[in-house]
Design goal:
The complex is a heterodimer. By secondary structure, chain A is mostly helical. Chain A contains nine helices and no strands. Chain A has two domains: 83 residues, Orthogonal Bundle (Rna Polymerase Sigma Factor, Chain: A); 72 residues, Arc Repressor Mutant, subunit A (Orthogonal Bundle). The termini of chain A are far apart. Chain B folds into three domains: 73 residues; 33 residues; 104 residues, Sandwich (Immunoglobulin-like), CATH 2.60.40. The termini of chain B are far apart. Chain B is rod-shaped. The chains are: A mainly alpha, B alpha+beta. At the A-B interface, helix 1, helix 2, helix 3, helix 4 and helix 6 of A face helix 2, helix 4 and helix 5 of B.
Chain lengths: 166, 265
């Protein structure tokens, strides 16, 4: 009984949120087939961890969005995924990376549509931190800029993003 | 810290998007508990983000939902405690020590649960056998006591034994009355009396100067006592046993007289 009820509720949850979550997954994992695997993983995790969701810390969607983003980043960092993309690697050259052309071509939708409106120097930071999951320290090393600068630039990029959303 | 500056610093967006460090997140949650403005700002950004992603939703293939629903159907109810997921991150290669520790502890739990159950059921079995033995012992003791009691009464010189013999209506109904003239106690020892329908009972009477005195109703049959303690009487010319309706409070039904015997005192 309870199981059936929960499954029904979960089915509704899926119907409601899967599209928005699949949006973020496909922006991190462009391959639709792999992204579908990630979506399954994400919903299984939601099912397992739903009791640990704390409404005091934010909205349910935010909680699920972070699960989806983390799972997607785990996927693109996995050995199997990296092996399948041998020729894709981060260029060490800062100036080259700072230009929009090296950012993998993604469909212009979702959050990226907004990110693309940012200045290039902000865009690359959001790309590396949000869509590729690099820590601020890793980004500072990669781009050879001070950690403090990375932080303030990301913060300002995010406040910029907020104004773009409305 | 000026909360307005904090709110506009980009920490809200950073927290919601999961880009803040663990320390920053803890500080943010701490401040949220004290500053409704901060919670409002967080909620505002969350709603905007949610609305945006919903407006840009990418519907997954319908087959995926089926797979997920099947998977959770097999998995069962979500647990109230965080579940150790064994199969996720399988692409990362070697298993972490924590995971092996988790596997080992689950195995240990299963093994100890098995032994606990085994001990429990064996213990239950022994307990049941012990109870059975005790019951049998008690039954034997009861029977022994009755036999001893009867022996004692029969050998007591103050106890008169009245042989109750069957009447024309009953034929073979026989019983012995043991009547202790010093204590006035009356015991009835059933020898051969047919079992009655459940709405009927035997009743013992003392006849004193031609008047019946009720000495009590009794049942006979399997599992009933051999020796029945009846009501006391100081006098009796004779004893009689009749068949009455269960719980009879009236006088004897003399035509139902089963057996009688004269007191010799």
């Amino acid at each position: 009984m309870l199981q059936q009820k929960d499954e029904q509720a979960f089915s509704n949850l899926y119907d409601n949120y899967s599209g928005a979550l699949f949006n973020i997954i496909t922006q991190i994992v462009p391959d639709r087939e792999i992204a579908s695997d990630v979506l399954q993983e994400v919903f299984l995790n939601i099912w397992r961890k739903i009791s640990s969701y704390d409404p005091a810390k934010g909205r349910l969607f935010t909680w699920m969005l972070n699960i989806a983003r983390n799972a997607s980043i785990d996927k693109i960092r996995s050995r199997g995924y990296q092996d399948s993309l041998k020729n894709y690697s981060l260029p060490e050259d800062t100036s080259a990376y700072a230009s929009a052309s090296v950012i993998p071509a993604m469909d212009d939708y979702g959050l990226r549509k907004l990110v693309n409106k940012l200045k290039d120097e902000q865009k690359v930071l959001v790309e590396l931190s949000y869509f590729q999951g690099f820590t601020h320290e890793e980004i500072a090393r990669k781009l050879n800029i001070p950690l403090g600068t990375v932080k303030t630039r990301i913060r300002s990029a995010l406040t910029q993003l907020r104004t773009l959303i409305q | 810290m000026n909360i307005k500056d904090y709110i506009s610093s980009g920490i809200v967006e950073s927290y919601v998007l999961g880009l803040s460090s663990a320390g920053e997140a803890a500080e943010f949650e701490q401040l949220c508990s004290r500053h409704p403005d901060l919670v409002a700002a967080r909620n505002d950004f969350e709603l905007k983000l949610e609305k945006w992603l919903f407006s840009e939703a990418v519907p997954p293939a319908p087959a995926i939902k089926e797979k997920i629903m099947n998977a959770i159907g097999q998995e069962g109810l979500p647990n109230q405690v965080p579940v150790i997921t064994m199969e996720s991150r399988k692409y990362t290669g070697s298993a972490s020590p924590m995971r092996w520790l988790a596997v080992a502890s689950i195995l240990l739990l299963l093994v100890s649960a098995y032994f606990a159950y085994d001990f429990y059921s064996k213990n239950k079995e022994l307990e049941a056998q012990l109870n059975l033995s005790r019951t049998k012992e008690n039954e034997m003791n009861e029977k022994m006591k009755e036999v001893e009691q009867e022996n004692q009464m029969m050998s007591d010189p103050n106890v008169a034994v009245v042989n109750m013999v069957g009447t024309q209506t009953s034929g073979r109904s026989t019983a012995n009355i043991y009547w202790d003239s010093t204590s006035s106690n009356v015991y009835l020892v059933v020898k051969n009396m047919p079992q009655l329908p459940s709405d009927k009972q035997y009743q013992l009477w003392a006849l004193i100067d031609g008047q019946p005195k009720d000495l009590g109703l009794f049942d006979v049959g399997d599992g009933k006592k051999l020796i029945l303690k009846m009501k006391d009487t100081q006098k009796a010319d004779a004893f009689a046993i009749t068949i009455e309706t269960r719980g009879n409070t009236g006088g004897p039904t003399m035509e139902q007289m089963q057996s009688q015997g004269k007191a010799r005192l």
